[in-house]
Design goal:
The protein has 369 residues and is an alpha+beta fold. The protein has three domains: 105 residues, Rossmann fold; 123 residues, D-amino Acid Aminotransferase, Chain A, domain 1 (2-Layer Sandwich), CATH 3.30.470; 64 residues, Dna Ligase, domain 1, CATH 3.30.1490. It has twelve helices and 13 strands. Strands 8, 9, 10, 11, 12 and 13 form a six-stranded antiparallel β-sheet that branches. It has a four-stranded antiparallel β-sheet with strand order 4-7-5-6, covered by helices on one side. It has a three-stranded parallel β-sheet with strand order 2-1-3, sandwiched between helices. Helix 1 crosses helix 2 and helix 2 packs across helix 12. The longest helix has 17 residues. The two termini are 39 Å apart.
Length: 369
């Protein structure tokens, strides 16, 4: 993980937006899920300062990076960590009266399927907040429903079949093997391993049962698409929608196509990545027609799934230039040094400017509503 560059983001640094946006200080509350019970703003602020000071040794939590960047942009920031006490969040926000809430919540009570709950509460209480609305978070978390929505709009998605919790594979699906089997509502490649790619019905049944038992949720089996794996980060809304430089997951050429999948190890285990020659790089050259197809597909998918302010789409592009949408992430990881922040930096937005860009998108959206 690249260290935080303190000299670049010193106290004198300010984000200067385009002429259409006036730079002004706001009260921004950063809301996020936390394992700490009973902590208030002062507790989180102390923890943030400790983690930021030790950035070279260990990466701070994403919410602390966001809050630190907002503070560097000149905003007044308040940290609202939520473990299970929603009443405290409501009362504290009502007392502080933020101009905007930056939603950094990825779960509630440790349950990722409840990530929609905090933005739903913010919406019910009438606060302006960043990111996707509850409906988009729920739809994109369910891989089967999101694929059905995308297919309705004519967007290419792999053929698939889903299995409810405890539903057995009773007969061969009307799909072409190999298939890749995933938890229906997990993210960050949870449950995806080399054993996820199955070649026959018996292996499919075994993997579906494993998903049911291990994750306590339904499973989805989709046709394996052999192609380049691309991650497309998007910021903005409507006419100001901006597609950032595309990231590509590349593998050692000696690895078979069916083993070139974004497993948990391939994404998060550095020693495994080094052994397998796995790297996240800016995408190798794409034909103009393919790039245009990617951008058109992503814009359509962004709107079809009610995404807002920022999101990421995972694609596969086959040798014939067909663009397949694998998944949409309505609440992507935006820490410094990771794919989306790196894509923003490639587009000319260092981390503070990237976070401010998300803030600007949300403010503009509410002003134009």
């Amino acid at each position: 993980m690249p260290p935080f560059v303190a000299a670049r983001y010193g106290p004198a640094w300010r984000y200067e937006p385009g002429p259409e946006i006036l730079l002004h200080t706001m009260r921004v509350a950063v809301v996020f899920d936390t394992p700490y019970s009973g902590w208030d703003h002062r507790d989180h602020e102390r923890q943030m300062d400790l983690e930021v000071a030790a950035w070279k040794a260990d990466e701070p939590e994403m919410e602390y990076q966001i809050a630190h960047a907002l503070r560097e942009c000149g905003h007044e920031v308040r940290l609202h960590g939520v473990r299970d006490d929603l009443e405290f969040l409501v009362s504290d926000l009502a007392e502080w009266k933020p101009d905007l809430v930056f939603n950094g919540a990825e779960a509630f009570r440790g349950d990722e399927s409840l990530e929609y709950l905090l933005p739903a509460l913010l919406e019910a209480e009438g606060y302006r907040y960043t990111g996707a609305p509850p409906l988009a978070l729920q739809v994109t978390r369910n891989k089967a429903i999101s694929k059905k929505v995308l297919a309705y709009f004519g967007i290419q998605v792999p053929g698939f079949v889903s299995y409810r919790l405890r539903e057995q594979v009773a007969q061969p699906p009307d799909l072409s093997f190999p298939l890749i089997v995933k938890p229906l509502q997990a993210d960050a490649s949870a449950g995806i391993a080399q054993a996820s790619v199955v070649q026959d019905v018996s292996s499919l049944a075994e993997r579906v049962s494993f998903i049911h038992e291990r994750f306590g949720q339904g499973a989805i089996a989709e046709e394996f698409v052999d192609g380049r794996e691309l991650y497309v980060s998007i910021v903005g809304n409507d006419d100001s929608l901006e597609i950032l430089p595309i990231t590509e997951l590349v593998f050692d050429k000696r690895i078979r196509p069916e083993e070139r999948i974004a497993t948990q190890f391939a994404k998060w285990d550095e020693s495994y990545r080094q052994r397998k020659g796995i790297r996240n790089v800016f995408a190798r050259p794409l034909a103009k027609a393919v790039r245009e197809r990617i951008e058109e597909t992503c814009r359509m998918a962004y709107r079809a799934l009610w995404l807002r302010d920022y999101a990421r789409l995972d694609l596969r592009v086959t040798d014939d230039g067909t663009v397949w949408v694998l998944e949409a992430n309505a609440n992507p990881f935006i820490s410094y040094g990771h794919d989306m922040a790196n894509a923003a930096a490639k587009a000319g937005m260092e981390y503070c400017a990237f976070i401010q860009r998300i803030v600007d998108a949300a403010i503009q959206r509410y002003e134009h509503a």
